[in-house]
Write a structure and sequence with these properties.
Blueprint (H helix, E strand, L loop, with lengths): L6 H16 L5 H10 L18 H13 L6 H4 L11 H12 L5 E4 L10 E5 L2 E12 L6 E8 L9 E8 L5 E3 L3 E2 L5 E13 L3 E2 L5 H36 L12 H29 L5 H26 L9 H11 L7 H13 L7
Parallel strand pairs: 1-4, 2-4
Antiparallel strand pairs: 2-3, 3-8, 4-5, 5-9, 6-8, 7-8
Helix pairs in contact: 1-3, 3-6, 6-7, 6-8, 6-9, 7-8, 8-9, 8-10
The structure holds flavin-adenine dinucleotide.
The site of flavin-adenine dinucleotide has 20 residues, from β1, β3 and α10.
Length: 366
């Protein structure tokens, strides 16, 4: 497939791909070591903290290439990313950001609430905040050292400061009750987190009170473009599996690729993958140029995850019953891609956001 990448990006992709293929049988821990040696592990981290500060396009290509290779632990290769903590200073930097980037601490993101009766709020108590409420779907919360929690701050008596904010809270703080982990279809684990009057110092607020939604949104946008790249890579991986399968002798006498009906389905898989990749790269270029592109990232998340879902579903159908057997790569891809139409934002909610971007904010080029 033509990619219209610059020579520098093509070189990066070829070298990165060769690195992955050379070590494909390595364990997660071995990959982490190898990636550190090759300096890929800090590619998402800022230069002043020892990272490579790779461009948006390099990051997308890296995620796509990892998924296309069938490697299921991208974090061991790309390493930790600053996420919500990217612009913090002082204690948030020394106690959370730097240990996170060094792999000494793990963070989790607490945003979703299933129960309108138990919103997460913070009340002022002198200089600190007292947090109450419940978050319903915190991935890796039980394994985390801290959580970045989106909540609403009640008005402070003197300054009147209030509104949505993101607060960093130690996961072992007094008053935090974590439920037993539960597992989603894709194999990832999550917890319900209850905050029962948890006392948190006000220095743990990321940025300004009132800026919580745009901050959380920035983080979710990052997650959405990463999911777009991963889903495109998963579709490419499925295509490789199906292409090999269709060329094999089949009990019908020839190969499945001889059959016109199969070729029609196969062409749709390639067309969908090509279209999704084109969207991904276009939005990647917009991001690299520094343009504001919330609508475009949202579009990429919906389009790429849905196109990849269709490709992987057809792949399962063409490979047949064996594709559904536990341990078959397509069985794993099928479970993984299904969850990506909900994680990071349900497709229909994102569609509403795209329309909102046009009708209420008159923004974007979609
Ligand atoms: C694998 C995985 C990992 C996750 N990790 C995290 C995490 O780390 N932290 C975190 O905070 N959350 C996490 N989540 C939660 C995720 O963000 C939510 O599942 C997602 O945003 C959808 O919200 P919901 O589940 O409450 O569904 P709802 O918002 O209830 O939506 C369900 C469906 O209802 C319909 N719907 C809802 N509202 C509307 C509307 N206004 N108009 C039209 N249709 C509508 C849509 O069809 C939608 O798909 C994770 C989820 C998954 C699957």
């Amino acid at each position: 497939m033509p990619d219209s990448l610059t020579p520098a990006l093509l070189k990066f992709r070829d070298e990165f791909s060769d690195f992955l293929l050379e070590h494909l049988d390595s364990s997660e821990e071995e990959f982490r070591e190898l990636s550190l040696e090759r300096d890929y592990y800090r590619m998402a981290q800022p230069i002043e903290l020892g990272g490579r500060a790779s461009s948006a396009m390099e990051m997308l290509i890296a995620r796509e290439t990892i998924a296309k290779s069938g490697i299921v632990y991208p974090g061991a290769i790309i390493g930790p990313e600053p996420g919500l903590l990217s612009k913090v200073d002082g204690l948030l930097k020394s106690d959370y950001l730097i240990p996170l980037l060094r792999g000494e601490k793990k963070g989790a993101f607490a945003f979703t609430e299933s129960n309108a009766d138990s919103p997460t709020v913070a009340e002022w108590d002198d200089g600190s905040l007292v947090v109450s409420g419940t978050k319903s779907y915190v991935s890796g919360g039980h394994l985390s050292d801290f959580m970045s929690v989106l909540l609403t701050v009640d008005p402070e008596k003197v300054t009147g400061k209030s509104g949505p904010a993101v607060l960093v809270i130690d996961s072992n703080s007094d008053g935090i009750k974590m439920g037993d982990p539960f597992y989603s279809l894709d194999g990832s684990s999550h917890v319900v987190v209850e905050f029962q009057s948890v006392n948190v110092d006000a220095v743990n607020i990321i940025g300004e009170i009132g800026q919580g939604i745009p901050r959380a949104l920035g983080n979710i946008m990052q997650e959405r473009i990463e999911q777009s790249a991963t889903s495109v890579g998963l579709a490419m991986y499925a295509l490789d599996i199906v292409t090999a399968h269709l060329k094999k002798p089949h009990r019908s006498g020839g190969t499945l690729s001889d059959l016109e009906g199969v070729r029609l389905r196969y062409a749709d898989m390639r067309i969908n993958t090509f279209a999704a990749r084109s969207v991904l790269y276009r939005v990647g270029r917009l991001l690299s140029s520094g343009d504001q592109c919330i609508n475009e990232v949202t579009t990429a998340k919906v389009f790429c995850t849905e196109a990849a879902s269709s490709v992987i579903d057809t792949a399962v159908q063409l490979v047949g019953g064996q594709a559904l057997v536990s341990g078959h790569p397509l069985e794993n891809l099928y479970r993984k891609i299904r969850s990506m139409r909900l994680a990071g934002g349900a497709s229909d909610i994102l569609r509403l956001n795209v329309s909102k971007g046009v009708f209420e904010f008159d923004s974007g080029i979609v």
